[in-house]
Amino acid sequence: MTNQSIRERARAIWSSTDGLVGIFLVPVLLGLLVELVNHLLNSIFLVSKFRYFYQQIPIYNDGTHFQHVTLDFGIEYTFLFQFLVELLFLVALFQVLQRVREVTRQLSYKESFRILFGPRFVPIVLATMVKEFILYLASLPLIVGLVTGLGLILTPNLYFLSYGVLPDFSPLVTTSVGLISLGLMVFGLLLSLYVDLSLKPMYFLLHDQLEAGVFQNPFKLMKQSWQLMKGNRMRLFLLDFSFFFWWVGILLTFGLLAIYVMPYYWTCQALFYEDRKSQSADLYQTFFLTATK
Asked: What is the separation of C-alpha 150 from the centre of its chain, rounded to a whole number of angstroms?
């Protein structure tokens, strides 16, 4: 299937399926609610996380006016709810895959809760935790590059506030740090994108292995997802990129458009997975043979 035919079939499935929007309604709205609560905690109560590092660095402007820079790191209080949102998205994908395979034509958010809190709860949680952790590790160069870049921009301003003059930094040092920061950001962005594309089929593979009763561990699942995507990452990237203006629309509507976009997007992902499975049938079968050994 081409990406265009995948999108066309996804739209046809979306228009002919009862409950497809509904199974994404709960995680999308819950996700928006979590973000709202997190914002209120931060703006009203001035705290939104369990801090494990907090320090105020004083900066004096003229000896009477006090200013400071705050370093604040911690785990947000809403972390568990954010993780629940991710789990609800995952089990929604299970139902989308069943609809694509014509197993059912009617989907229900109640079925999502039944799947999530049933006997599959532990492998679902483990797979989600491992995937999110790997994606976080892949994003570290990007984060370090951003922090370094911000430090390069802010340091002269902070120095000026403290001493009233701009620092006399060597152009060589400034240029070197700037290039390193930019390099880390570019590398981190590409690495994050590469890893994300490689792990896109992971949840669909999880569904199939749980159905077959051959799931072993999320690390093997991750390796199999990587193998399944070999040579097809650019194709999936182009499919994802075709949703660019949809993502812009989600930002402009403060996330509300996701209620419409998520069913369409993940139906496309399920169809892409089915296409990869049919193209790599021999490889796909080995995932179940090796799992039983």
From this structure: 23
- Please write the tens of the pLDDT for every residue from 77-104: 567 777 888 898 999 999 999 999 988 8
Q: What is the spatial distance between Cα 225 and Cα 244, in angstroms, rounded to a whole number? A: 24
For helices 79-100 and 202-212, give the axis angle rounded to 10 degrees.
70
Query: What confidence category does residue 55 fall into, taking pLDDT thresholds of 50, 70 and 90?
Result: very low
Residue that has been written with the tokens 């991750």 in this structure = 222
Q: CB of 242 within 8 A of CB of 198?
A: no
d(CA 236, CA 200): 9
Instruction: Give the Cα separation of 283 and 293 in Å (integer).
Output: 16
